[in-house]
UniProtKB/TrEMBL annotation:
This is Ferredoxin. Its cofactor is [3Fe-4S] cluster. SUPFAM superfamilies: 4Fe-4S ferredoxins (SSF54862). Gene3D superfamilies: 3.30.70.20. The keyword Secreted does not apply. GO terms for molecular function: 3 iron, 4 sulfur cluster binding; electron transfer activity; iron ion binding. It comes from Thermophilibacter immobilis. Residues 39-61 are annotated as: Disordered. The keyword Iron applies.
Amino acid sequence: MKATVNEDCIGCGVCEGTCPEVFSIGDDGMAHAIEGDVPADAEDSAQEAAENCPVSAIEVA
């Protein structure tokens, strides 16, 4: 499973607050996903972060 954040991100921080193992807010003020696969123990919280993103900028698949 991989997570991606697209250009619609507004940098609200919901994803980082929900799943800091996968998402962080970068120096540019936007969210970024870790590179590589989402750790197995973070899959549920990564999916929750995607579902709660106010602009649907996150895909977890």
